[in-house]
Amino acid sequence: MLDLEELFPNDIEVPRCLEHFDYVVKNEKDEACAYVSYTIREKELILTQFYVAPGYRHLGIGTKVMDVLSSLVGVDFIRVISTPGSAGFYGKLGFELDAGQTLMTKALIQ
Ligand SMILES: CC(C)(COP(=O)(O)OP(=O)(O)OC[C@H]1O[C@@H](n2cnc3c(N)ncnc32)[C@H](O)[C@@H]1OP(=O)(O)O)[C@@H](O)C(=O)NCCC(=O)NCCS
Fold it and tell me: Do the beta carbons of residue 29 and residue 39 sit within 8 Å?
């Protein structure tokens, strides 16, 4: 049987847990117009979902939400796997393709 005490000695540094957040964004008329979810890992904010409802696009809501996320204290980087259709949006906000990352997928179905 595995000896966990031996595997994880007491003085081992425990990594900071991931913190996850989900928000429905409302406009000044109290209408739900967008949804954002993200995970914070150390100084990285990883955008997992970002959706502005169709009737509310191109009004600056996406930019405002990204401004709020950019101003969070302790966050130095925002990362996102953009859809092909949204890459232009992120590009306008200063995001750049990260050459050091490769998206890898393993299909578990035949
Ligand atoms: C991409 C998305 C979040 C943008 O939100 P938005 O509120 O419409 O964005 P904004 O109004 O703040 O637009 C900011 C700028 O980006 C541009 N832009 C917006 N959507 C764009 C797109 N899909 N492609 C290229 N440029 C885009 C706007 O023209 C605007 O530029 P401007 O200031 O020069 O006019 C929204 O279209 C959306 O939810 N799309 C469907 C879901 C999606 O793709 N989510 C991202 C998954 S990673």
Answer: no
